[in-house]
Write a structure and sequence with these properties.
Length: about 200
């Protein structure tokens, strides 16, 4: 048996249900209620689903209380506490991003010199581990530098959207190239709807 999972972040259930999408809808499809512990509060917006916690819950089949990746845990990026605090300081982060943009510093320099990303899911078993010969095109629980994109905060809306579209095209190409390969599970994670939704949600006017 071969199983293809197309994981589309932010693909709204009611939007799909109201339209004819024969290759997205299955014979049986339904919605689920998102647990309260998977929601993060955003000032001026309210409670919204928090991607890292939701996908950890989906792929492990456990609640945040069971798998341990809560909102607070998921928002920590670095094992080093000093580096974690510096990243949360916007002026410092902005200087770093500009230096990367001008190629004064290489992207991912902190990881290259030995600093470790805080990865709360590295020891968790997921459904991807159950396959004998899986092909995973972008894991939503991964922090792979390969899928990093430009942010609207530092590069502007236009550059950020272009970066996300380019990323999406790479995911699409890799997925299509993998279809005819030997696998029992092909998992593809598509994040463009979620990313661009965040960009335009916060865009003035």
């Amino acid at each position: 048996m071969r199983l293809l999972i197309l994981a589309v972040d932010a693909l709204e259930y009611d939007f799909v249900k109201s339209r004819r999408f024969p290759f997205i809808k299955q014979r049986q499809y339904h919605r689920v209620e998102i647990p309260e512990e998977c929601l993060s509060y955003v000032e001026g917006i309210g409670y919204i689903p928090y991607t890292p916690v939701i996908w950890t819950t989906i792929l492990t089949g456990k609640t945040p209380k069971e798998h341990g990746v809560t909102i607070e845990v998921a928002k920590r990026h670095w094992k080093n506490p000093i580096l974690h605090r510096l990243e949360k300081t916007k002026p410092i982060k902005k200087i770093y991003v500009k230096m990367v943009e001008k190629k004064i510093l290489p992207a991912g320099i902190f990881e290259k010199i030995g600093f470790k990303k805080f990865n709360p899911i590295e020891n968790l078993e997921t459904l991807l581990d159950l396959a004998k010969n899986p092909i995973v095109i972008r894991n939503p629980m991964s922090m792979d530098l390969k899928w990093r994109v430009k942010t609207a905060e530092f590069f502007g809306f236009e550059e950020a959207v272009k970066s996300h579209i380019k990323n999406f095209m790479r995911v699409t190409k890799e997925t299509l190239n993998a279809v005819n390969k030997n696998w029992d599970l092909l998992f593809t994670y598509v994040k463009i709807l979620d990313n661009i939704g965040h960009i335009y949600w916060h865009r003035p006017n």
